[in-house]
Amino acid sequence: MKNKLKILSLLCLFLISCEDVIEVQTENTDKRLIIDGLILVDPNQQTTPVAIKASISSGFFEELKPAKLSNIYLRLENGGYINLFELQPNSGIYQPSGDEVFPGEISTSILINQKISLVLEYNGETYQAEYEYTPTVPLDNLEFGNGDLFQGDETEVKVSFTDKAGRADYYLFDFDYNNYFVSKDEFYDGQEFEFSYFYDEDLPPGEQVEVKIIGINKDFYNYMSQIIVQSNTEFNFFQTPVATVRGNIFNVSRINNDVNLLENFPLGYFAICGFDSARITAE
Q: Helix, strand, coil shares of the chain as percentages rounded to 5?
């Protein structure tokens, strides 16, 4: 049985008079640490690139700035550690040193066979997140369709895959250009599933799109669902969202019930996820 789903995106129209000058008052928010800790794993590859990006949030309309961490490492369930380094100074991107053959990469078997913690130190505070690898399934087919939504100039992409039977699966789809969608197999466990995703404009001929199917756990699914609901346009879920959404990275500097400590958490998420991808080119 094949299930089909069409995704409808909300369109918001903002009408602004061209004769008036509008001054936008933005709220001054405290700077907050942001961690882009998504590690994508192809289990068929011997090694996996690891790059944890640390940034500092700033005011509205301002670019994020790289964060200088005093320490960062992956703590393995078997008791081992993998230290991460800022291989490119002032980049805010932290990677394992690796070797000349696989710089910035570690063995895939390490990532998929045990629970792993991310531990980092910033401004005298220690933060920690924990995640266990979640697998995915391959994409069966990816193609452009002829459907449209409201305006008639959208681009339809049709995606199909076969869910693994008897396992609670949650998926994050990356449709390129910071377009995301989440799904769970509650109603299509073990079945072939097909759905359509619509870009809100025609893609020019020759434009290439990469689509990823990413396996995530229930907590990451809930996190991404909140982010997507709050966002009516393209976004990067490791940047400051419309409202602050708590991820899975916590301040563990002192184990107590200090309210200030509990509120002092970074934005972003740490996850180790299996993925598959495919590319198509607009005609």
A: 10, 40, 50
